[in-house]
Amino acid sequence: MILQTARELELWHRFWTLKDEEDTNLDFVSVLAKTEFYKAIKKAIMVCLALSCTTASTKRTFSTLRRVKTWLKSTMAHEGLSGLCLISLHRKLVSNDQNFKERL
Q1: Scanning 16, 26, 78, 93, which has the fewest C-beta atoms within 10 Å of its C-beta?
Q2: Which residue has the higher pLDDT, 70 or 18?
Q3: Among 60, 49, 48, which residue's Cα sits nearest to residue 85?
């Protein structure tokens, strides 16, 4: 498996070094369309595409938790902190709900 992946990577490198310079300025989605015969390369590109999304949401989650814990920990009960964390993390859902503030 590793030997096959290494060989595939070598072929992939050769494929791109023989291309014109204008063909090398592509985004991940365009490159993904060229991976028909390179299964391992396709998997790696798919991971890269998903990684940027998941990394940003994870950083935002930890940032929110840290902010809530440091600023509000001494003044609220545990249930209040949990509720505020959920509201902050799912703020798109809350902002779409017109009656949310009235129900609080």
Answers
A1: 78
A2: 18
A3: 60
